[in-house]
């Protein structure tokens, strides 16, 4: 087995690791042993998951989890998977330090060269990592008998579906409310009454299921419009009060002081009015 000893930094702009050459087809024989530093000191990545990442010249990104980690001495030992040797070319790579789905930090890029071997036409892509990662997660779940992570993912999916259902329902309610207001406006947008009826009961008898437009009732002078029922819009087009047009009963109680009405004289001795 070939071991490549390198030092990588999360802060220095370049990582000079020398000439790293790995032969295509040498399965599980190439090992990268890396010491991680930051600002010239050992980098502390305690309890973080570590991944080896590379991007091929065709743009495909490959990832694999590093399982041999020495947190105390900030060292990594990674056996290069076959998917990282799938193309004869110079490949850009880096290590990332992650907490769940969040990347906390990563080393600066470095390069390694893949030289031709006996194996050719390895399919391009990241399928090797994806299958191996799924297998690893299943083995961890079975080995630990801990299904909490799987249950959490299912709960998250359920939450997403519930949110989508609620959002859809809210949009439907909003659309219904807008339609209702549009109908209401359409019913009263023309201020000219379409008819006059003796009373509200007469109007309801004429249009029990409603109709567009506004209608006036002569018994109280109010106008009505339909919105899931006949709605009272108030007095229709009030006019100015003419001289000598009000009866005693139409006056407000406070305005009757000093007036004679209904065979009764009202005198305000307090205010001398």
Write up this protein:
The protein has three helices and 17 strands. The chain has helices at residues 127-144, 148-188, 200-206; strands at residues 2-9, 21-23, 30-38, 41-42, 49-55, 61-66, 68-70, 75-79, 90-99, 102-106, 110-115, 195-197, 214-217, 222-226, 230-235, 260-261, 264-265. The chain is α+β, with helices and mostly antiparallel strands and 273 residues long. The chain has two domains: 2-122, Immunoglobulin-like (Sandwich); 195-265, no CATH class. The strands form four sheets. Strands 2, 5, 6, 9, 10 and 11 form a six-stranded mixed beta sheet that branches. Strands 1, 3, 4, 7 and 8 form a five-stranded mixed beta sheet that branches. β5 (49-55) and β6 form a beta hairpin. It holds the Pfam family BppU_N. This is BppU N-terminal domain-containing protein. It comes from Lactococcus cremoris subsp. cremoris TIFN6.
Overview features:
273 residues, alpha+beta, Immunoglobulin-like, 2 domains, five-stranded mixed beta sheet, 3 helices, 32% strand, BppU_N, BppU N-terminal domain-containing protein
Q: Approximately how much beta-strand content do the residues carry?
A: 25-35%
- The class by helix and strand makeup works out as alpha+beta
Q: What best-fitting shape do the alpha-carbon axes yield?
A: rod-shaped
What name is given to the CATH topology of the largest domain?
Answer: Immunoglobulin-like
CATH architecture of the largest domain: Sandwich
The N- to C-terminal Cα distance equals 118 Å
Give a quick account of the main beta sheet: strands, pairing sense, barrel closure: 6 strands, mixed
